[in-house]
Amino acid sequence: MREIRIRLLWHKQAQFAGYLLAEELGLAEARGVRIRCEGLDFACKHVNAVLRGQAEMAVASPAHLIESADPAALRWLLTIQQESPLVYPARRSEGIATLADLAGRRAGVWPGQEDLELRWMLHRAGVADMERVEMPDTVGPFLAGEIATAQMTNYHELHQVEAALPEGDLVVFRAADWGAALLKDGLIAGAGLVAEAPEVVQAVVDAVLEGWALAFDDPERAVAACLAARPELDAASQHAQLAAIRALSLCGGTLDHGLGYPDPRHMANAARAMTAIEGHAPETAALTDPRFWQGAPAALRRKEW
Predict the structure, then answer these.
(1) Whole-structure pTM value
(2) Which structural domain, as residue segments, surrounds residue 160?
(3) Cβ atoms of residues 199 and 31 within 8 Å
(4) Which of 178, 196, 225 is the last residue of a domain?
């Protein structure tokens, strides 16, 4: 039995319900592959875990891939969420009503090359002098007034600040309003694994797609898997999170092509963002490998739910 470690982009929660179901139910084991999901490790995040041999696969974005130390050593295989979930809240009570009002202020961002979307949005809006501060917890410092805005997701952190602030005080900025939205979650593998053991990669891709299909068809089962992984989680919040992930997933490329479709537009957007910010981007033509999505059973690549 070959073990494949998947390094998650955050701690285990409904954001990764399909992966957790694939692990819990052993969906790849009939083909000699055991999936093991690993939660976030800030010391070695997502694609770095693959590059350093600490994991064979990771949940990460095209932006993470192209900004990595060695993009050519990675391959983007699947996309579950087809839209960016990132939001950037601020307080009207601090005199912030437009993106331009963030000039000269501080923004909290997650450590480890997580802020390309924010930088692209600010670039497009002409906001050039915002200070970005890396912090693993963006909610606490935001609520404490230490930062003016922060990276958050619309299915997790945003709900925490909405509950804590007075009604009407929150203004929420979204990169999509500036044509700067970037995909957040996808499945990435090491190029060596893809070349040397394509049958293993196919088994994992099929299992992940099956896990997500089960998660969307049976939310109760999916949330149970999340609670089994982390008993301290609240079931109601996990149901709400899964519903938000479902909405982010069953749109765009999923409706046009099917669940998991690695839409090349997402990689192209990340390359455009990097070029706009850094003046260059790596060659991306070989970084997306759609063969395994194409090779998955048609029933798992369905468009209608």
Answers:
(1) 0.95
(2) 86-178
(3) yes
(4) 178
